[in-house]
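Hi R.,

Here's the input for the magnesium ion complex you asked about:
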Amino acid sequence: MERTLSIIKPDAVAKGVIGKILDRFESNGLKIAASKKLQLSRMDAEAFYAVHSERPFFNDLVDFMISGPVVVSVLEGEDAMSKNRKLMGATNPKEAEAGTIRADFAENIDANAVHGSDSVENAAVEIAFFFSGREIS
Ligand code: ATP
Ligand code: MG
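And here is the predicted structure with magnesium ion in place:
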């Protein structure tokens, strides 16, 4: 059994599709082991996306991630990390396969509806960033 971190980003929360996105996970065999809605601070977003701090789009990414509340969830199941990445679709929604979350709910590469951990190792770090052990079950 594997765990991964999902973030429903401010664009999707503002659109009112939290339930529709969580349903994609549950309908595809991913259990929601923890979930909460919160407003990221600038420091939170900079720390969370620190790997991208040298990229030209870093400031826009941080501004976007703090533009409104997000929903962070721990997804659990067989191959949870790669399964979630498949359900999400490509980073650029214009390249995302039909039926994926980003194809259905995202506007562009900046406002792309969801985040998902990109490795099992990063998933553990990202889950610990948002949740204590007793919040996950
Ligand atoms: P995420 O980490 O949010 O799940 P991802 O793993 O598909 O997305 P990353 O390469 O980790 O993509 O990029 C993190 C975020 O930075 C993307 O979700 C996107 O919003 C933004 N981003 C990535 N590449 C670009 C780019 N070339 N131009 C603008 N924004 C970008
Ligand atoms: Mg990423």
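One thing worth noting: The chain has a mean pLDDT of 98.

Cheers,
M.
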